[in-house]
Amino acid sequence: MSGSMKSSIETMLEILQEKAQKGIVFDILNVYQRLTLDVITRTAFGIQTDVQTNTKSSTLRAAKLVFVTPYRDAMTFLGLSLPILRKFCMGVQDFISILLNKGQKPFIMLRRGIRKVMEMRRNNPKTKKNDLLQLMLDSSVAVSGDVDVSTLEAGNAELETAGSEGSVRMHFDHLHEIMFTNRYALEDVQYEDIHIPKGTLIQAPVYLMHHDPDFWSEPEIFDPERFSTKPNSEGITYLPFGVGPRNCLGMRFAQLEAKLALANMVYKFHIKLDEKHNDNLEILCRIRTLTPAKVRVKLEPRNEGN
Ligand code: HEM
């Protein structure tokens, strides 16, 4: 391991070591969430935070609030079902998140942090680093007439594409939609007996596809090898990172991080599921993510030879 990712994983291992020594049962999802936030803030946005070591970190609080809204939330339901109420519903959700985030809109707070780093990098070449943010900053200077990535920031970002025919501005509303495996029908489509009118937003039911017995044998059984083997049928049946030219830009990065974190953890500890844990994980369906409610485990340090 090397670089920022290594140092974030080492911090996680120290936290786990402490928990293993104390022999306590804890929610490992929470530890992973803090690790992934630490890695992304360091590597993509060049910001060093205390999200792993400080459970009261304001960055951690803001980032969690961005992802917390449940799919079944009344405001989300209303906003999606009645587009006329969409702005109002988003306003109510914003208001609640501002209250929970102690007076600041979580998106704006995170964006401000990134902006500061961007200004620092632009104004002082000595602060340049070899990371994703620098790549985006450099390409925004080098490539004229292409996407101005300096306007692509987390949260209420505006993505501006300056082309020969003028400028197309996309607000966060649109960015939000392209971050998921959603596609708009650009024209009327007839798929077998289903008519899809132009402009319809189609969302791929990823969770259902990954749990469909037509595609995968015994899909509810925990089987770490499942997606390494071929599905029961042909076609696109595995798409955690989307598919096509707009699939996930960070796929390899995310997979590398997950593998490194898991390999290091398994190398150092035996992982035991808490006895009180229900057999089935409770899955929470948020508007931006799908996560288990809690994954309660206990770790035992591995001695040499076991
Ligand atoms: C386990 C972690 C991750 C998962 C499951 C995931 C999943 C996805 C999915 C499903 C999409 C939509 C793809 C589509 O519509 O076909 C997407 C898009 C995207 N992801 Fe990820 N992602 C992950 C981590 C990351 C990371 C770490 C980064 C950045 C370093 C990243 C950057 C992006 C970007 C920029 C897009 C938009 C691509 C485009 O529209 O062209 N993702 N991701």
TrEMBL record:
<comment type="function">
    <text>Cytochromes P450 are a group of heme-thiolate monooxygenases. They oxidize a variety of structurally unrelated compounds, including steroids, fatty acids, and xenobiotics.</text>
</comment>
<feature type="binding site" description="axial binding residue">
    <location>
        <position position="248"/>
    </location>
    <ligand>
        <name>heme</name>
    </ligand>
</feature>
<keyword id="KW-0408">Iron</keyword>
<dbReference type="InterPro" id="IPR036396">
    <property type="entry name" value="Cyt_P450_sf"/>
</dbReference>
<dbReference type="GO" id="GO:0008395">
    <property type="term" value="F:steroid hydroxylase activity"/>
</dbReference>
<protein>
    <submittedName>
        <fullName>Cytochrome P450 3A11</fullName>
    </submittedName>
</protein>
<dbReference type="InterPro" id="IPR017972">
    <property type="entry name" value="Cyt_P450_CS"/>
</dbReference>
<keyword id="KW-0349">Heme</keyword>
<dbReference type="GO" id="GO:0005506">
    <property type="term" value="F:iron ion binding"/>
</dbReference>
<comment type="similarity">
    <text>Belongs to the cytochrome P450 family.</text>
</comment>
<dbReference type="GO" id="GO:0020037">
    <property type="term" value="F:heme binding"/>
</dbReference>
<keyword id="KW-0503">Monooxygenase</keyword>
<dbReference type="InterPro" id="IPR002401">
    <property type="entry name" value="Cyt_P450_E_grp-I"/>
</dbReference>
<dbReference type="InterPro" id="IPR050705">
    <property type="entry name" value="Cytochrome_P450_3A"/>
</dbReference>
<dbReference type="Pfam" id="PF00067">
    <property type="entry name" value="p450"/>
</dbReference>
<keyword id="KW-0479">Metal-binding</keyword>
<dbReference type="GO" id="GO:0016705">
    <property type="term" value="F:oxidoreductase activity, acting on paired donors, with incorporation or reduction of molecular oxygen"/>
</dbReference>
<keyword id="KW-0560">Oxidoreductase</keyword>
<dbReference type="InterPro" id="IPR001128">
    <property type="entry name" value="Cyt_P450"/>
</dbReference>
